[in-house]
Amino acid sequence: MRVAAARWLREHHIWETVRLVRDIPDLAVSDDAGWPSRRFRELVAASALVDAVIHLTNATTAKLCLRSVSHEQGLWTCSLRYAPSIGGRVTFKARHPDLAGAILVAFLRSCRIQAAPVPSDIRPNLPM
Q1: Which residues lie closer than 8 Å to 54 by C-beta, 6 or more apart?
Q2: Stated pTM of the model
Q3: Looking at the domain assignment, is residue 29 inside a domain?
Q4: At what angle do helices 99-111 and 11-22 cross, to 10 degrees?
Q5: How many domains does the structure of the chain reveal?
Q6: Domain range spanning residue 15?
Q7: Is residue 47 a part of any domain in this protein?
């Protein structure tokens, strides 16, 4: 199921994203570091999906920064900022009816700048 097609983000969307991140060598934190962290797993188990997704965006080597969140006409808009080591800034923006979904879609868009493409079964498909 695509994240964009789901009205609400579900736990399996987050775990599929974790699998994706593990498959991108330049993005994933070493499994030796206990990634994803115990705190992340606790958040998902408690259905604190917004907190879990924010934790996920901060737990990768990209160290994304949540820049803005807004809600208008039934859609959440989220912006994540990435500062590459070569300098400059890149902002990833997404809209979704669910706050956790908007953050996750922005995160998935940021994954596209890494070495591997986002698989089509979880690729966000939202107009901006």
Answers
A1: 66, 103
A2: 0.79
A3: yes
A4: 20
A5: 1
A6: 11-111
A7: yes
Q: HEC profile for 19-73?
A: HHHHCCCCCCCCHHHCCCCHHHHHHHHCCCHHHHHHHHHHHCCCCCEEEEEEEEC
CATH code for the domain in which residue 55 is found: 3.30.160
pLDDT digits (tens, 9 = 90+) for 72-123: 999 999 999 987 777 788 899 999 999 999 999 999 888 877 644 444 444 4
d(Cα 76, Cα 118) in Å, to the nearest integer?
22
Average pLDDT over residues 29-45: 79
- Please determine, for residue 12, whether its predicted confidence score (pLDDT) is greater than 50: yes
- Specify which residues 95 forms β-bridges with: 77
Q: How far, in Å, CA of 70 to CA of 27, rounded?
A: 27
Instruction: Read off the amino acid at residue 122.
Output: I
Q: State how far the Cα of 35 lies from the Cα of 39, in Å rounded to an integer.
A: 10
Residue 2 inside a domain? The answer is no
Per-residue CA distances from 53 to 86, 88, 96 (Å): 26, 24, 14
- To the nearest 10 degrees (0 to 180), the angle between helices 99-111 and 49-59 is 20
